[in-house]
Amino acid sequence: xxxxxxxxxxxxxxxxxxxxxxxxxxxxxxxxxxxxxxxxxxxxxxxxxxxxxxxxxxxxxxxxxxxxxxxxxxxxxxxxxxxxxxxxxxxxxxxxxxxxxxxxxxxxxxxxxxxxxxxxxxxxxxxxxxxxxxxxxxxxxxxxxxxxxxxxxxxxxxxxxxxxxxxxxxxxxxxxxxxxxxxxxxxxxxxxxxxxxxxxxxxxxxxxxxxxxxxxxxxxxxxxxxxxxxxxxxxxxxxxxxxxxxxxxxxxxxxxxxxxxxxxxxxxxxxxxxxxxxxxxxxxxxxxxxxxxxxxxxxxxxx
Length: 303
Hints:
GO molecular function, one term: phosphotransferase activity, alcohol group as acceptor
InterPro entries: Kinase-like_dom_sf, NH2Glyco/OHUrea_AB-resist_kin
Number of helices: 10
Pfam family, one: APH_6_hur
Protein name: Hydroxyurea phosphotransferase
Structural class: alpha+beta
């Protein structure tokens, strides 16, 4: 287990017990699925991920996640997408937290690829369009975005006076209102990736790029875009980020057939929510950076 992941998990309720049980879990999956395990991958936040070789001598990836809300639907979403824009699920255990996955090779991340930012953004948007292309079944067992957004609106409202009372009241109230209203006014519902940042889009053989590590929900597609737009090549490095933000959201609107103003509204709301989540764990510098993002997004969107 990478040390950073072990520290993250150990701080969670039940994390130490999970870490202690992990060798037995890996042994059970190795024996039950007839796998030969290879090197452990670095990165991630609360899962063990490593190379595996199947009984048919095929490359694969074994992933075992600490049981938590965001990971609960990963197997269901990958099964639903069936390789369209994402790696394929080969097997999962009974609780859905042990996954045997298609190996994504050569596996370099989009965030590390050479090229102009907007060309790389286009590649990421095309992956996102694939993930959104299939209408979700009514019985799909994924959490509704509306439920999560309502929870977040309440958390922002509670954390604001306690953690960052000096934050711009118009910005924070706008974000709370958007978290409450946007999920209820969506014109369509898709299976959301939930964390489509450029580190979760990898170069592959059967497709130029494939998504990994979803934190899936079902709901308004506009929710997904924020990390892809902001993490490829941060517009916040510019003296005036507004024109670049409007251009990139316009590109996203054209490729994804979603209104640019709605995409920007979702990104504003998500940046505020994430900022207060950072504040809640004491990461004030990171929280202030995301609140600055939210301000720039809101200004560019005219919110």
